[in-house]
Structures are given as C-alpha cells and as structure tokens.
C-alpha cells in the first residue's frame, strides 16, 4: 500500500507502557464500583470453589470412619449451586460494564475526531481512523473488566489455595511451585509478542478500511477505469496482512493458554510421585494427598485466569496505543449551542481585510501567500481571480481559520480572526467549497446542515432564491428525497446551488463561494450568477471566480498570482491596466491561463 507519501497517525511514536496503563485506567475509572461488584461476585464464587476440596477431605475422612455423609453432601451441593449463581451474576455485571467502556471510548474518540484541526486531519487516513473507532475499541471490552477482575480473583484464589496447600504439606507445595514458576517464566517470554502481533493486525485492519474508503470515495472512476480487480487486490494485500498477524497472535495466545493445563499436569505428576512416597513412608495420610491433588486442580482456574488476564492486557494495550495516538492530535473547540434560529435578513454584512499575510501549509513547505494585503468592504461582491495554484482558495481557508497565518493578520469586521471565538467566527460565515460537497441523506438534511433550527419558511425562501424550488417539486418525496452518497443522484449544478442554499440558510454575514472549475451549462451558469448577485445585495460575498460572467458583475476584483496580490479594480479597469487579467478575461475560462 503506497501511503508512504502521506504520513499518518500510525507514524507517531507508540504509547509507552505507563501511558498505556494510565489510559486504560482512565477508561475503567468511571466504572470502578461496578467492576468492584463484579470482583466481589468473582471472589465469592472463588471462595465457594476453594471450600469444595476441604469439604471433600471431610467427606473422605467421614467415609473412612463410617460417619453419616448426607449433611455434608447437601452442604457441598448448595455450595456448588451458590457459587455458580454468584459467578453468573458477576459475569453479567462485568460484560455490561465492558460494553459501557467500549461505548465511552467510541464516544470520546468520535468527539475528538470531528474536532481535529484541518492541518492534523489532512495527515490522517480516514479509513484507518474509522477502524480505530470500530475495531480497536472492541478490544477494550475484555481488558477493561474481565482482565482486571480475572487478575484480581486469580491472584486471590491462587494465594488462598497456596496458603491452604502450605498447611496441608509444605514439601508438596514446594514441588508444585517449582513447576509453576518454570512454566510461568516461559509464558512471560511470549506475552509481549501477543501485543506486537495484535497491534500489527489492527494496523492491517486499518489499512483494509483505508483501501475500501479509497475505492468507494471514487467508485465511478474505479469502474470507469476498469480498476475493480486491481483495487480488490490492494484490499486483499491488507486483509492478508491482518490474517498473518492475527494468526501469529493466535499462535502465541494458544501457547500461553495451554500453559496453565501443562503446568498443573506436570505438577500433578510430580506431586503424585513425591506425595506417593510420602504417604507410603507415613509422612502424610492419604486424605491429605487427595486434598492436595484437588487443590492442585483447583489451581488450574486461577492460573488460567491470570494468563488470560495478561494476554487480554497485551491485546488491549495494542488497541489503547492506537487509540491514544489519535487522542494526541490537536483539536478545535466545539461550536456553541445556538438556541435562536438564524435570521438571514437581520445579519449585517461583515468586512474582511488581509494585512501583510504570509502563509505556508506546513513547516518545510514553500510559502503560499507572500505579504498578501487587500480589503473586501462590508456588502457587495469581491471576486478573487488568478491562475490555478495562485493561492485563491487558501484566502478562504485563512478567513475560516482552518489554518493559522504564519505572518500578518486576517481581520473579520476589523477584529483579528484569532481574537474571535472560533465557533462564533465560523457561525457568521457561509462557506461553499469548490467541489460543493453534498452529504448522504435527504435534501432537507443537506439544506439545514449548517442551520438545524431553520424553519420551513426559511427553507422555502432560500430555495426560491437559489432557484431550487422546481427541483424540489420534481423529486418524488420533495425535500425528504434521499440524494445518494455525496449527492450522486443530483447534477453538478444542482449540487452547487444546494451548497449555496445551505450556506445562505445559516444567515451569514459573509458568504465565501469557491466557484467550481468545471463548466456549467448556460442555464445553470445564469441561475448561479443571479443567485450570487442577489445575495451580494444583502451580505458580503467573496467569490473565487473561475467564470467571466461572475467577475463582470463583481464590485471589485482582486488579481492574485503566485501568492501575491497583483492588482485590484473593476473589470473595466483591470482589462485596461493589468496584462494578466486581460489575458485571463480573454480566455473566458479564467483558470486555464
Ligand atoms: N492542504 C494543503 N496542504 C498543502 N498544500 C496545499 C494545500 N492546499 C493547497 N495547497 C497548495 O497551495 C497552493 C495554493 O492552493 P489554492 O487552492 O489556494 O490555489 P487556487 O488559486 O485556489 O487554485 P485553483 O484555482 O486551482 O483552485 C497550491 O500550490 C496547492 O498545491
């Protein structure tokens, strides 16, 4: 997969063990009391299990002395049933909490992703981010609760069993511990490999999402280019990677998982040999050997719980490391809640001024703007023209404060954009991107996207201004007709006017319109020009213009070239005074110069 040219979050340094543990604890902290309840249930269940071998020893002793055993049998049965009930309750409480941990992690992650700064978001592959939200968070399920409780009950039950075994016979305990320590050491070597394999496997899952996102983001082009098989092969490469690392992780987990059985079986053989000798020499009675062996088998559960907990921790740590890396990216403040519906007629037009603005997209990249200065006074239309790559769209990005200037100042209504609260600043601006994105959903959802409180009257008014009323009448379900993925069921011109209607519905004090470079038919072009000129009578309009018809009706035109303002004037003035503008105007299609 050729993602080398585009750094992603996966390039960031992995989280340290301490960071991972703290992040994990932060996920569990809000649920600590429920986890404690689950732990209590698990401990009660474990205590029940712990009593069973002792009860069995009493039973065997009574059998030997021909005493009645009905009472002890009934007590044993009650103990078994009770431990099962408590165990079940504990398991339910924990599973529920685990789901809550996953929900909280997803909620936090999604909240952060949507607030990423544009400059950060551009470095990230969307498919990979999606897999972090959907797939990595799932791995938190086990580690956040089962592993915590498994480790705690495992330790308690293990220590308790060892204590009882010490009372029964210290020599046999020594034999048992010797075997367990030996196998435990081998397991410890395997554990970090599980974390590594899991992280790689999750990275590959991210690559699958990235590859799919690439395909479906340009599905028509993929089909028209006959690239289906090539693209399927790309996805397959990532899927095979995920498989390879998944299998590797499964191998280490299986090895670790069978270690508990192996440890106890080996200890059993050793205890049988040593214990048998001790029984025949009269050092211990046979009932002690039986009880000891039962405790030995009782140990299987806590030991396997401990091993499971550690391998779940390794998997969870891999996921946490990937999630934490996204959380390190910087974000913007959330928009404030705006209770009152926007009144587009009431919004006073705003002015915009660039004062000696220098800008580059990232350190190490060349400057895009060099001391750019101009003024777009309140009300009326200001068009920005210039050859492709001159830095026209970047002007809008700086007004919206998608990026910070590297020098000079951008003033909105006389105040530096950095002194405005970001959500407030953006709430005053209507912004129409060059490719006028329409989102999947209904037409209505798209229209009220930037102004959810807009009333039907507001919508009707904007539809008539943008000449979309006829389209709505034609659609089978009117405003509630779905428009397809990225508005694929609409024409290019319709998409553009919907994007303008969406921006106008916000009641902006400034409308930023990045005109599409693609050709529109004459009817659409006329409709669009009318919409813009009509809007410019009510609010400030700035247009990155690619069509002669747009610039002719502008109040002032700013000519940009290679990141500099080259000339400012009206169409008539510029045709006479500026050679580049005259050339651009002569070609009609301004970007082809
Ligand atoms: N997000 C970005 N990161 C890095 N460089 C960028 C980014 N966006 C634009 N550029 C670069 O900045 C320069 C100016 O881009 P801009 O989009 O402002 O040009 P433009 O004048 O609007 O061009 P066009 O008329 O083709 O839309 C281009 O060279 C472009 O490659």
UniProtKB/TrEMBL annotation:
Q: Can you say what this protein is called?
A: ABC transporter ATP-binding protein
Keyword tags: ATP-binding, Membrane, Nucleotide-binding, Transmembrane, Transmembrane helix
**What SMART domains does the record tag this protein with?**
AAA
One of its Pfam families is ABC_membrane
Membrane topology value = Multi-pass membrane protein
| The species this protein was found in | Actinoplanes sandaracinus
Q: What is its main location?
A: membrane
According to the record, the segments passing through the membrane are 33-51, 71-94, 139-164, 170-191, 254-276, 282-300
Occurrences of domain ABC transmembrane type-1 (ranges):
36-315
Cite the source lineage: Bacteria, Bacillati, Actinomycetota, Actinomycetes, Micromonosporales
Q: Which PANTHER family match?
A: ATP-BINDING CASSETTE SUB-FAMILY B MEMBER 10, MITOCHONDRIAL, ATP-DEPENDENT PERMEASE MDL1, MITOCHONDRIAL
As for subcellular location, the record says: Cell membrane
Q: Which Gene Ontology molecular-function terms are recorded?
A: ATP binding
Record-annotated ABC transporter domain positions: 352-587
* Tagged with keyword ATP-binding: yes
Q: Does the keyword Protein biosynthesis apply?
A: no
């Amino acid at each position: 997969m050729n993602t080398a040219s585009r750094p992603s979050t996966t390039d960031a340094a992995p989280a340290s063990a301490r960071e991972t543990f703290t992040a994990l604890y932060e996920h569990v902290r809000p649920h600590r009391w429920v986890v404690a309840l689950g732990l209590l249930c698990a401990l009660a269940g474990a205590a029940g299990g712990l009593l069973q071998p002792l009860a069995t020893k009493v039973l065997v002793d009574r059998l030997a002395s021909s005493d009645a055993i009905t009472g002890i049998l009934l007590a044993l049965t009650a103990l078994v049933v009770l431990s099962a009930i408590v165990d079940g309750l504990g398991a339910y409480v924990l599973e529920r909490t685990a789901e809550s941990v996953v929900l909280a992690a997803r909620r936090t992650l999604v909240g952060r992703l949507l607030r990423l700064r544009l400059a950060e978001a551009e470095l990230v592959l969307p498919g990979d981010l999606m897999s972090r939200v959907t797939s990595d968070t799932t791995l938190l399920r086990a580690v956040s609760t089962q592993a915590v409780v498994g480790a705690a009950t495992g330790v308690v039950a293990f220590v308790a069993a060892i204590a009882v075994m010490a009372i029964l016979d210290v020599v046999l305990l020594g034999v048992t511990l010797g075997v367990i320590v030996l196998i435990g050491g081998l397991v410890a070597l395997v554990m970090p490999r599980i974390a590594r394999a899991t992280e790689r496997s999750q990275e590959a899952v991210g690559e699958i999402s990235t590859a799919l996102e690439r395909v479906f983001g340009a599905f028509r082009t993929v089909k028209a280019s006959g690239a289906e098989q090539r693209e399927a092969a790309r996805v397959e490469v990532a899927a095979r990677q995920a498989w390879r690392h998944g299998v590797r992780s499964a191998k280490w987990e299986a090895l670790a998982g069978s270690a508990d059985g192996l440890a106890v079986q080996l200890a059993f053989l050793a205890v049988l040999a040593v214990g048998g000798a001790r029984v025949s020499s009269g050092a211990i009675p046979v009932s002690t050997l039986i009880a000891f062996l039962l405790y030995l088998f009782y140990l299987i559960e806590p030991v396997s719980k401990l091993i499971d907990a550690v391998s779940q921790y390794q998997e969870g740590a891999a996921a946490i490391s990937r999630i934490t890396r996204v959380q390190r990216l910087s974000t913007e403040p959330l928009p404030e809640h705006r209770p009152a519906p926007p009144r587009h007629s009431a919004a006073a037009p705003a002015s915009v001024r660039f004062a000696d603005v220098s800008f580059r997209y990232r350190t190490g990249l060349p400057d895009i703007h060099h001391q750019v200065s101009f003024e777009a006074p309140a009300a009326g239309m200001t068009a920005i023209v210039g050859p492709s790559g001159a830095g026209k769209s970047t002007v809008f990005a700086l007004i919206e404060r998608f990026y910070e200037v590297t020098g000079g100042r951008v003033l909105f209504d006389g105040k530096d954009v950095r002194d405005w609260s970001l959500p407030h600043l953006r709430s005053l601006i209507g912004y129409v991107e060059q490719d006028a994105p329409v989102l999947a959903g209904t037409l209505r959802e798209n229209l009220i996207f930037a102004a959810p409180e807009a009333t039907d009257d507001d919508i009707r008014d904007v539809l008539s201004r943008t000449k979309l009323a006829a389209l709505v009448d034609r659609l089978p379900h009117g405003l509630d007709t779905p428009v397809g993925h990225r508005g694929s069921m609409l024409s290019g011109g319709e998409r553009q006017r919907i994007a303008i209607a969406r921006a106008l519905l916000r009641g902006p004090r400034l409308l930023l319109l990045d005109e599409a470079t693609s050709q529109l038919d004459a009817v659409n072009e006329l409709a669009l020009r009318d919409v813009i000129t009509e809007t410019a009578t009510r609010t400030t309009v700035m247009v990155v213009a690619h069509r002669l018809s747009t610039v002719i009706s502008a109040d002032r035109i700013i000519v940009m070239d290679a990141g500099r303002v080259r000339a400012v004037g009206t169409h008539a003035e510029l045709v006479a005074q500026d050679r580049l503008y005259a050339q651009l105007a002569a070609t009609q299609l301004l970007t082809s110069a």
